């Protein structure tokens, strides 16, 4: 008898912890169609952008995003791409799919697009979750008024960057883009460094982490990796996760360096999804959503007046065939606060970092440096441009020395400018030394 009393007492205790008022019915739909990685679901009403889970043949519930809807029902894009799903499989909404784990526990870790560890250091214990941020109030954006030293002499001297600046790094393949990113990562002063590696070869991801994430910066760096062979939705999710993590640290008043490598492969991922959704291809096969995504992403970085924190963002862009008129290049260049173009001819001549001074600029530099620095940088950039414009004439013997004093000076100083640009990949040049070298170059 006493055993029965103890049993019912335990049941009453368990029931007292259940809140019936918070319970709600679970609504389900069913899969009606599958094609090109896109699933159609009927019998369920969810908003565009909402999260969902789909029951697969092996009994798992795979996450997906509602990408649109039509007369044929909801259009779902599973994170895992082609999943083992049958017609009539159940679908239900899940708000947690849109949440992203954030917090200091992620620093020093290498994770995938879903937040799972890739570094073999055990599970990640996130302290908080973050939903996708809506468009920020532009009046809360902070001015770019503090210099961000990179330790790269050509950048600090001739195209000075500021905290909260958004910069595009435009380069073809094999011209030293990753090496330049590593130099900047080692040289900047930041509370957190967030790196999104999107669409890279798996070997390059491991190589970048092992070689370029310096030991002293490893504890404050998070790498979010999505290799080239993962589905398009996971490549998008990797950048979303990295940006959300950077936003969380900025909201805490931290100085954050965000690196997205590369924006082009992100646009390719959105192109895959857009074309599968039936969007019309436009310039170079990009649907409208691919190019519209770029300003939405870039505008999430920058400084914040309320918290005092900032996200200084570097977005790399692959110029296919060194084409600077590529639509992704053009869109990113118009929305960022400056751009650095890496020159293949300089790289082939052994000049690294292969920064093309004539086509690179920082739109914030004039607000960050004093008058002597600004004048010196402008003169060196002018000399470089004149030398490059007339180089073919000089090589052909069509230009006679003495015909134009400015061109004569530009041609004479070009080797010294190349020496100023050239820097050892592991080297760091202090700001005072950069200014001194710049003044010496101006007087040479």
Automatic annotation (TrEMBL):
Family note: Belongs to the ATPase alpha/beta chains family.
Gene3D superfamilies reported for this sequence: 3.40.50.12240
Biological process (GO), any one: bacterial-type flagellum organization
Entry protein name: Flagellum-specific ATP synthase
The keyword Membrane appears for this protein: yes
A Pfam family recorded for this sequence: T3SS_ATPase_C
UniProt GO MF annotations: ATP binding; ATP hydrolysis activity; proton-transporting ATP synthase activity, rotational mechanism
Subcellular location: Cytoplasm; Membrane
Recorded GO CC terms: cytoplasm; proton-transporting ATP synthase complex; type III protein secretion system complex
Protein species of origin: Sphingomonas paeninsulae
Enzyme Commission number(s): 7.1.2.2
SMART domains: AAA (SM00382)
InterPro entries on file: AAA+_ATPase, ATPase_alpha/beta_chains, ATPase_F1/V1/A1_a/bsu_nucl-bd, ATPase_T3SS_FliI/YscN, P-loop_NTPase, T3SS_ATPase_C
